[in-house]
Amino acid sequence: MRFNYRHTKIIFTIGPATEKEDVLREMILTGGVDICRLNMAHADHEWTEKTIKRIRKVCKSIKRHVAI
């Protein structure tokens, strides 16, 4: 039996330059992103919560699951 999926996963880090919805949407759709990593070096709880909600909103709108 042969499965049609790729074994390699694409991970990208979200930071100040990549946290906007349009940038997230573009990276997920064209980059084939599987996992979003949050850059916690300068993050606080508020930024983290807003960013996770933003990722989930974008994923829902394009009907694609991305792990966080």
Short description:
This protein is α+β, with helices and mostly antiparallel strands and 68 residues long.
Question: What attributes characterize this protein structure?
Answer:
68 residues; alpha+beta; two-stranded parallel ribbon; 2 helices; elongated
As a percent range, the share of strand residues is 5-15%
- Taking pLDDT < 50 over at least 5 consecutive residues as the criterion, the unreliable ranges are none
How far the N terminus sits from the C terminus, by CA atoms, comes to: 31 Å
Q: What is the strand tally?
A: 2
Order of helices and strands: EHEH
Largest sheet: number of strands, sense, barrel closure: 2 strands, parallel
Assembly type of the chains comes to single chain
Report the total helices.
2
Helix content estimate = 40-55%
**How do the strands line up in the largest sheet?**
1-2
Write the layout of secondary structure elements.
Layout: E1 11-14, H1 21-31, E2 35-38, H2 45-62
Parallel strand pairs: 1-2
Helix pairs in contact: 1-2
Describe, in plain words, how this protein is organized in 3D.
This protein has 68 residues and is of the alpha+beta class. It contains two helices and two strands; from the N terminus they run βαβα. A two-stranded parallel ribbon has the order 1-2. Strand 1 (11-14), helix 1 and strand 2 (35-38) form a beta-alpha-beta unit. Helix 1 packs across helix 2. The longest helix has 18 residues, at 45-62. The chain starts with 10 loop residues before the first strand and ends in a 6-residue tail after the last helix.
